[in-house]
Every structure is written in C-alpha cells, then in structure tokens.
Amino acid sequence: MDPVIQKDFNIAIEPREVKRLLGYGEESGREPRERFEEVLVEAIERAGKLVSPAGIYVDASGGDLPGSTVFDGLERVAYCVCTIGPELEGEVSRLSGGDELLRAVVLDAAGSVAAETVAEYMDRSIQDMAAAEGLKTSCRASPGYGDWDIREQRALFELVPAGRIGVRLSESAMMIPRKSVSFAIHIDEHPARMRSENSCRNCDRTDCTYRLLE
Amino acid sequence: MEKFLTECAQSIIDGNAEKSAELARMALDDKHPVLEVINKGFVKGIREVGRLWEEGAMFLPELVMGAEAMKEAMTVLQPVLEEDAAGKSAAGHVVIGTIEGDIHDIGKTLVATMLSANGFEITDLGADVPVVRFVDEAVEKGAGCIAISALLTTTMSGQKKVIEELESRSVRDKISVMVGGAPCNDDWAKEIGADGYAGNAVAAVQLAKRLTGA
Q1: What domains lie within chain A, and their CATH numbers?
Q2: Whole-number mean pLDDT of chain B?
Q3: According to CATH, what is the number of the domain B2-84?
Q4: Which of A131, B18, B86, B178 is the most buried (most CB within 10 A)?
Q5: Which of B195, B209, B139 has the alpha carbon at shortest distance from B170?
Q6: What's the ipTM?
C-alpha cells in the first residue's frame, strides 16, 4: 500500500505537559517562579511558530519489517514516522550557545511535547483509518522501548520513506531532526497488547523525569 | 559584611541574575575582598541551589536560573580576579563535549554551565566531537578532566574510545574521565574504565570536584 502523508496540520502545545517534563508535575505541588512562567509562555508561543508538523505511515503486515521478527504473525501493522521539523532545535542550539540556557531548556521541552503531540495526531489518524473498516488499534510501540531493539530503527526506515517528510537516520541510527517519533501500531479486530507499550513499567530507572506511571 | 554575603548567596538561590550582577558591582565599588565575596557569598548560594535541587525542592528551570545568576556575578568579578591572579581556575579545567555521532547538546551544556558556576574552567567542544579532539584539547589546555556525554546506545562506545586514545598517548594517568547521558550508568563507567559516572548536572559537579581534588 502507498504511504499516507499528513502535513501542515495544527497542534496545540499544552503548557501543563511542558511543566511536567521540567519537573513541575501536579504531584509535586509546587508552583514555578514568576520568571519561569514568563519564559514558558514565550517558549510555547515561539515553539508554535517553529514547528512544521508532518507524518508518514505505511499500512503493512508484521512480517514486512525487513530482518525483524518483533511483529511476526501480526496481519496488519501501521509503521509511522513523524516530526516537528528542524527549526525548533536549531533555535534551541542558538539559544544555548548564546547564554540563554533557561530559554533553551524550556523551548526544548516545548519541542518534546510538540513531537509527542504530533505522534498522538498520527496515532489518531491511524485509529480513524482502522475504525472506518470496523477495526481497532493497539497502543504505540517504538524502537528502543521495551523489547523492540533500537537497532531495528533502520528496518523501520527501510519500510517507511520518511525522507518524504524530511526525516532521516544518522549513521548512529539517530533520527534527524531529533524531535521526531517513530512507532508501530497493530490494527485488528482484537489488537495485540504491544510488548513494548508499558515501557516505563518495565524500566528500572525509577527516578526518570519522563516516567509515566499512574 | 555578613549581611552582604548572605544577600549574595540569596540572589543565586533566587535565580535573580540582575540582583547578583548588581551585588557583584557593589562589592567592587565598596572594595570588598573579591575572593571572600565569591567563596562565602555566591559560591555558598550555588551550593545551596545544588543541594535544594538534589532534595527535590528545586526543579531544572530553577537550577538553570541559579547557574545563570552565578554566571552574571562572575562575569563582573572575573576580570578583577584575573588581575589578582589568585582565583584563576581554582577548581581545575574540564574539557567537555558530546561524543561523535551524537548531536544532543542541551544536557551537556547544562553540565558545563553548572561546572562553570562552581568555579571550573570549561572548554566546551559542543556536540558530535571526534574522539581524538577530546584528547587533543585536553592535552593542549592542560585539563585535568574530560567529561563525555552520550545520549544514544549507538554512540556510547565512543566514550570508551576516548579512554583508549588517552591510554595510547600515555596520558591516562594525568587526565580523569567522567561520563554521562541517558544510556550510561555506574556499571558502564566501570566497564570502560572511566573514573566516574554522573547522572545529572549537580552530581557532575560533585564528581568533578572529587576527581580533580578541588
């Protein structure tokens, strides 16, 4: 099946999520300082102008991932790469190199939230496509999380022509732009519980800032 | 004087860069002993910031604000210190960078800023730094420590290569090596023969102090 490309859609960057990434979770019970709030508002506004959301997915089967056995036996899997584009991280580098580290840190966090929001948008788009056929979808699984080896990022990029939305892999298998997300979703009447979906639960880094556990 | 020093420390804890710079200028105008103002005032403040952050009473943006306030104060005081030739690189020289193949640089910049705020002289090589460049710079600058960041499992092997390069040039005993970044930990540091691992910018300051005897 031909790849599906989505571009130029709007995303909203949630200030609450940016705060959570920077440690101000609801559970922390602490309010940020006034100056941080100013920087936060400015960063989200600036991030809104610097993101160019785009996503591409291929509707294929579990066996289509070259050289991989991780989704063997699954009849239909959507493989997706999405990004916010390169501009925001360029601005982060410029700020951190120019003694504006606080602005850089907050803008970087806003970019991470934006990338996650783009992934959610693509996730919903795949859900809608499945729902139109009376099917359901699993949670997202990403290379490098749980038991899906990061080295299989290359296999995913062989299958998904991500260059068409401006995303490539470096020699060290890092996505460029950095604020990009790759994932797979199982589509079925009864979708599998993806083995890597509870990646935080399986991770022994209990003090990780990004840990998402109820 | 005691009250003045407390105010200096407090300006750093509050992350108030305008105030810290103003106090630094006042110290010069009133001919307060500069080293005392730094060590018993501003440095006390940045130490407290580190402590509060470790306790979870401060979050990343406040840590950055503290470091920025410290930097502002030191920008005012440094020229006088250098005239005195008394305070030059009191804590030692650290060459820092993100290893080749890896372009993540904000965490590394944060560590560099905290080291600098704590009196270290810093040579920040940026990101995607070739193995030999770490060693070349450290040897040329007479640095006692190299700090290497790696954010990818695919690039962390570069940290080991830096150590091998130091050994091959017979300078390993003169230059200590600290490592950091998401995939690293104490076991990894031991495995590759590094002198230590730091999981965050505050821990990096403590480790650098231990390694350089500062």
Answers
A1: 4-202 (3.40.109.40)
A2: 92
A3: 1.10.1240.10
A4: B178
A5: B139
A6: 0.83
